[in-house]
Amino acid sequence: MRKEEFVHLCRNWPVQGGYSLAGAVVPLVRTYLFGNHRRKLPVIWLEMNDSGDNNISFLNATSPYVGQVFTYMIDLLYSNPFMAAQGPDALQLLTNAAREYSGKFTLVVEGAVPTKADGLYTVIARTPERPLTAWEILRWLGPLAEYVLAVGTCASFGGPSAARPNLTGSRPIQDVLQRPVIRVSGCPVNSDWFVGTLAHLILYGMPEVDDQGRPTLFYRDTVHRHCQRRSYFGQKVFAEKLGDKECMYSVGCMGPATLADCPYRQWVDHVSWPVKANTPCIGCTNRDFPDGSTPFYQSLAQKRPKEGGRS
């Protein structure tokens, strides 16, 4: 498949295919790897300071299920949220993977990086001498990776982990690494966005990104553009309270200021999304989420930039 066709597939599959994008791209990747005698994408996966929502969203992937992504797309060399190994055994696996696959692996990172107290707020491993913090391990692995993929808004922009008052000094991945980072933001990330980006890395390499480092495969248009309630907005018919069927701009919807394809990509096995469930978009893919979205139920016109949000 040509790259242009793949891009079209990613952007239009929810409309044309009717189910998970992963169900379309995993067979493509499997055929490509087998036909070209290529190995799966080697991945080192780190979870740092977050709520664990992104790997849970990924585990909820269907058609195919997450096990098929592991089987046919990626070679998971190390993952502190997923692996069974613990303690010294896990650290040895990480050390071996970093050495053997230096310059060849993709580093997937969930969560922001605590930097206060020398990063002691998130410890990935321990040695007899000292704890190894997420901050230290990220600075070790980041320069060795072929690609760095920030999964979720905390890793991408700081997110809730770096929201006011940010007692841990949490920061987005790019602030620590000072190298190109593919930002697949969302709180949590949609499994299609993540799997589709991985597939692009395997098939074509680095995807096109916007000025904030997000793949334009999924972050090209505003939520507002394709919202099923946009006709109400055009007629200036707004909800008076949560649960009303009209446009929810008046009760805090961030759709006009948020880039994501949630209205037709959808969630919960691709059958719903916030507005369909009668709650406004809160702008979870944005650089300034959540501080820039609060108060959540105040109209976008009334929201103001907050002072001292990130530290």
Automatic annotation (TrEMBL):
Matches recorded under Pfam families: NiFe_hyd_SSU_C (PF14720), Oxidored_q6 (PF01058)
Subcellular location field: Cell envelope
Binding-site residues for [3Fe-4S] cluster, renumbered to this chain: 262, 281, 284
GO BP terms, alphabetized: anaerobic respiration
UniProt-listed InterPro entries: Cytochrome-c3_hydrogenase_C, NADH_UbQ_OxRdtase-like_20kDa, NiFe-Hase_small_C_sf, NiFe_Hase_small_N_sf, NiFe_hydrogenase_ssu
Protein name per its UniProtKB record: Hydrogenase small subunit
Quaternary structure and partners: Heterodimer of a large and a small subunit.
Cofactor dependency: [3Fe-4S] cluster; [4Fe-4S] cluster
